[in-house]
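hey m, so remember when u said the tokens were messed up on ur end? i reran from scratch. heres the input so u can diff it against urs
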Amino acid sequence: MRASMSCLIVALGLVSGSALGTDLTTCLSGLEVSPGATVGDTTTGVTFAGTDSPRRAGECQWTTRSRGGAWYAIIDRQGPAGIGGEVTATGGNWLWGRANGAFYHGQVKGGTVTWPDSLENDLKGEEHLGCGPGVARFSVTLTVVGHQGGTFEGCLDDTHLNPFDPPFVFPPHISGLLTIHL
């Protein structure tokens, strides 16, 4: 009995230890559904919503295709948004509901959104392809209730709003990789 109990404890330790350091990842794609309210250089309540989406060409790209889940985020930010600007995410909340009924949620801890200095330039990250000319790159850190936190990193196209100046994008599109540290 004592030997079998020791084996059980070791086995449980190995199983729980193997789960440490794992990540759950998915692509998210969506739209900015509210620009929030701005006072000075602080904007509160910028709202995004969309679906979890399949990878396209191995990358998380904006798409209308869905894997059956849905997400939203409400973000507060500070700083000058738009071409040549950079904003700091100062807080907010987020939620992702998977097609299988599982939910993940938490708060936005911080992060940045950086736009290229012109509509013609493309910000290329070290590990990622560029988002495209005039498109911002973002990276935010998240709390995840019941887990070790996470990140959401990707592209925000909110600069191609003039219907006479292709490519015309409205409302603003957002896409990226959500990573949850389990």
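this time it looks ok to me. DSSP finds one helix and nine strands in the chain. if urs says something different then somethings off w ur setup not the seq
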